[in-house]
């Protein structure tokens, strides 16, 4: 019995049907489109069984599947090593074409090259599209073709290019939804994938406060942030719709979205930043890397209320306010002289919005070792940050209920830590 000829659309970091570029073009195919998602063991095997991000992916896929069922279709969910799964799929189906959206992280690039090579060896066409950014790879570059390593000129070039195309094109595939493969695939439970529900959940995004984002963004007690970042990370929202909207509503918010693409471009152009300082002159810094100090930072028991509140918020919810992230990161690298890589790895475990490029970029910014970084002699004073951005202690008391009961003394004196950090950096910077 001959197998049905089909096209696959491979979902990855684009968990939505609307304004999905690769899906839009897949549905133009002359073959029925089977939607596919692979739970990749190369990623899953490193995660705890109650990882909330896996739960969010599963929940997002369930919503997609519900939409597809209304169209007489369903999403095919697989679990395994990606190349092995594709080998099985090519035996199970008569695959004519495969469509997907690009991912720019080093592991994803290597994975996709291997799958494209496998498909090519079977004479199967594959098509990759830009979807998670407005501008990718080398689209924003200097006049000599080299990548920008300073944010402001990158942003200016980005805006110039965006304004020449604004609004960014959106891809409505609703009139081609009839081309989804008609048929049912059993949708697995979270337990069948090998995971369990987490007490930590991704919060729905909320854009109602973006109009005055520039006035409220630094005050964690206000809780006026959009909670968009996990949704951007996993593609449950369209970056084109969001940027087109932000460009009309608030330029400071738009700048934050441009920072996201700046760090993606840095990671793509300089993949060494995942494990090495962008500024190699900083490789000689002698970090203290005290494990007990690191434990106190992780648990939010440093004696600095702003730092501790931030870490407790992260541990309890998977979120941390952006202003507070800067304070806790600076404290780890400068006050405790612990390598930024320790903090980056801890955030990677805990953050619901963990994005490799932004996480590495922002940690190196805080440590002073990255591109366009804060200068090494800039050491945030957590007490001054608290007075400026949480003067009444509302945010702090939310996460430190014992704050008014004689909170513990700071684990290190700020003036001493600042002098020690500056001296250590000066001695360690390679000439």
UniProtKB/TrEMBL annotation:
The chain crosses the membrane at residues 21-44. Keywords: Chromophore, FAD, Flavoprotein, Lyase, Membrane, Transmembrane, Transmembrane helix. Residues 5-134 form the Photolyase/cryptochrome alpha/beta domain. FAD binds at residues 213, 225-229, 253, 256-263. SUPFAM superfamilies: Cryptochrome/photolyase FAD-binding domain, Cryptochrome/photolyase, N-terminal domain. It comes from the Bacteria. The keyword rRNA processing does not apply. GO terms for biological process: nucleobase-containing compound metabolic process; response to light stimulus; response to stress. Belongs to the DNA photolyase family. This is Deoxyribodipyrimidine photo-lyase. Its cofactor is FAD; (6R)-5,10-methylene-5,6,7,8-tetrahydrofolate. Binds 1 FAD per subunit. GO terms for molecular function: deoxyribodipyrimidine photo-lyase activity; DNA binding; FAD binding. The record marks 287, 340, 363 as: Electron transfer via tryptophanyl radical. InterPro entries: Crypto/Photolyase_FAD-like_sf, Crypto/Photolyase_N_sf, Cryptochr/Photolyase_FAD-bd, Cryptochrome/DNA_photolyase_1, DNA_photolyase_1_CS_C, DNA_photolyase_N, Rossmann-like_a/b/a_fold.
